Amino acid sequence: MAHRSLLHSLSQYADWLESHLDEWTTTKDGTLHADIKYHYMRVRPPAEGEPFHNAPFPPGRIYIANRGPGEQYEFDAREVVDGGFLELVRYGVRRPDDPLILNTLKVIDGVLKIETPYGPCWRRYNHDGYGQRKDGGPFIHFGQGRAWPILTGERAHYELAAGHDVTPYITAMERFSSFGGMMPEQIWDFADMPQEGLYFGRSAGSAQPLVWAHAEYIKLLRSVADGKVFDRISVVEKRYAVPREKRTFQSRMEIFQTGRPISDMVQGGTLRIIDQQRFRVIWTDDSWATKNTLESRVVGKPGSFADIQTSWDQTGSIEFTLFYIEENRWLGRNYEVTVHEGALPQSPVAVKPKS
């Protein structure tokens, strides 16, 4: 029974993450493609008031540390992209023909794709400074991020999921390798520099062999032999990689943790409070005219949780604090979550503790 309860709780947590996935990882005001504003980006920086907000930097900007002297270190997050979103298709979280996936493919192909004499390859992200320097010198604290053969393999897994021929990608990975069949971390993706031993499409001065590039190649061959992506998680695909209008569930849960507090939820939803320790939550939805108490339920390694259910016509806010049972101590502050009608605001905003 306890095992079933844990699985149900983890499933609800997964639904909550998936319900906010695109909201937390995209921009709707992209600048890299003239026709595409809505796409995934590499990092969505926390806004002011959110956990892990980097106060020295203006809102919406990120810092890239591996840049060289005199180069720009700070960038608008909307302008930095990578191919990490392809893993959503790889593991079955998104369909390969999802419009957001297709749009982001166009963005990264316009910014990161390198066509070499041996086949296509991709850089990790734009403005990357980890790689051979522009003059061919080695990476020492800074350089120029080059194209990675492993990313050709990752793209091939997406193309396989989409039903496309992946032979050109397999051939490219094989041709990027050394004469001994060792795959490099990065290839030289600029004009030949014979004096430095660097040739377009051949190994740069990076690690060789890169074992995880070999692993990606082997998994790709296995995927082709199976006729499906080796890493695909079938239960995930069945639940999430379906059109939203055909889904049989909808997540109306918001999860609160003291390390990641929230300030908004929707009517008819569940406010789930999670903590590693057992706790008692004391809460009100009428400015403390009445007081309610709930004890958390222990679910094993994730810790314990307590649920506050809202009604479909509820307005106003829920205010609460926690009492830690084993330690016999109060949290020492109150938190407030506003209950909204309809959809939540575009992005989560951390609640400010009330004294």
Q: Mind summarizing the main beta sheet?
A: 6 strands, mixed
Shape: elongated
The CATH class of the largest domain: Mainly Alpha
Radius of gyration: 24 Å
Helix/strand/pairing category: alpha+beta
Number of strands: 17
SSE topology string: HEEEEHHEEEHHHHEEEEEEEEEE
Into which percentage range does the β-strand content fall? 15-25%
Q: Helicity level, as a percent range? A: 10-25%
List key phrases describing it:
355 residues; alpha+beta; Glycosyltransferase; Immunoglobulin-like; 6-stranded mixed sheet; 4-stranded mixed sheet; 17 strands; 19% strand; disordered C terminus
List the helices and strands and how they pair.
Blueprint: H1 2-25, E1 26-27, E2 39-40, E3 61-63, E4 74-76, H2 86-90, H3 99-111, E5 113-116, E6 119-123, E7 147-148, H4 149-161, H5 167-176, H6 211-226, H7 234-240, E8 253-256, E9 264-266, E10 270-275, E11 279-284, E12 292-295, E13 297-298, E14 304-309, E15 317-324, E16 329-330, E17 335-340
Parallel strand pairs: 8-10, 9-17
Antiparallel strand pairs: 1-2, 3-4, 5-6, 6-7, 10-14, 11-12, 11-15, 13-14, 15-16, 15-17
Helix pairs in contact: 4-5, 4-6
Could you describe the 3D structure shown?
Helix 4 packs antiparallel against helix 5 and helix 4 (149-161) runs parallel beside helix 6 (211-226). The protein has helices at residues 2-25, 86-90, 99-111, 149-161, 167-176, 211-226, 234-240; strands spanning 26-27, 39-40, 61-63, 74-76, 113-116, 119-123, 147-148, 253-256, 264-266, 270-275, 279-284, 292-295, 297-298, 304-309, 317-324, 329-330, 335-340. The strands form 5 sheets. Strands 9, 11, 12, 15, 16 and 17 form a 6-stranded mixed beta sheet that branches. Strands 8-10-14-13 form a 4-stranded mixed beta sheet, with helices on one face. 25% of the residues lie in helices and 19% in strands. With 355 residues, it is α+β, with helices and mostly antiparallel strands. 30% of the residues are buried.
